[in-house]
## 1
Amino acid sequence: MILRLQELIDESKVYATIRKLRWKSGCHCPFCSSTKIRKRGKNNRHQGCQRYQCQKCARRFDDVTGTVFSGRHQSITVWISYLYLLGLNSSANPIAAELGLCASDSQRMAEQLRQGVVSRKQAVQLTDKVECDEVYSVAGHKGIPTAINNRDPRRNRLKGARGRGTLATEKPPVFGMIQRNGQVRIVMLPNVQQNTIKPFIEQTISKGTLIYTDEYTIYSI
């Protein structure tokens, strides 16, 4: 007998945990933030999921409205199981086998969960002493297999054109900002023009910070 992880999770307990974590200060409307809420029974498809109606804006919602779990066809137990296994550094294919999912569904779930984590993560803010620099990564023909049809095998990596590259020339710049003894932010840019890097610097580095760079003119902002 094969016993999968999803069979060990009680849906009602999962929703009870979500309510405990989400409504720490009491249930509120995710649309207008009002705390004047009325319960509207349980979800027909997911009996553990409580439904509500806001008495101020009259909109209806449930325990997972506005979260990465909202509107998904997979049950909450599958999503929680997936999240748990993802946290153990399992890859999409082994998780698909464990939870009885097809490979494409598993890949989409991984992307949605990771995007959900990234979207809620606070933006990195660097202060004190920060170093900025850029490197150029040769992108090659990844994702464009027709570009290398009938080409002889090569032993060395693709050699990009000399000089500073761009995304359009398959040699995109990777721009890094690191606070000494602190956090790091790395982004891939379409080019290294001043108007391209300026927004990232202003968003990431606090005013009054001492910035260390090379003599490249793009840093003369």
Note: The first strand starts at residue 37 and ends at 42.
## 2
Amino acid sequence: MTGDKSRSVFREPDNLNVRIWRYIDFTKFVSLLDLKALYFPRSDLLGDPFEGAMPRDNFRFYSLMYGTPPITPEGLQEISQLRRELRKRVYINCWHMNERESFAMWNLYVRSNEAIAVQSTYQVLRTCLPSHIYAGSVQYIDYALDFVPEDDLLRPFMHKRKSFEHERERERVKSDHRCGG
């Protein structure tokens, strides 16, 4: 990876001053203040088995796109294994983009009565991040019908299933390095 903050896979929102929210338990907030760092869990530990997955059409049309023989079951298994390994090397810190707080997000991401909503803007967060961390808007797609370009190993991590659209995770921070606590 380069230190380029403007990788094309990480699309900025139209409004750089859009409000972003992070809903966290109070203990995680104290840790954030103490360590002065955001926590980036591994993408394979986020609870979504499709995190970083490729749509079905990417495999169905592989031979047409690349002029190679169709992928064998063994080859598909090998690709799947490589993708699982990549998920262990990509770290993610997610933010909710909305002008107001979201009751639904409180319920989804906070497990106790002692919690904090951290509010900022895309621009402020982006400015604070080191060059090896990328930020951008998530695209929600139908994995049975859509195709994700394969020009960047991190592109699949910037796409989620349409069933997650309620998260409005238009702001997502990615890294291929462990950052923060």
Note: The two ends are 22 Å apart (CA to CA).
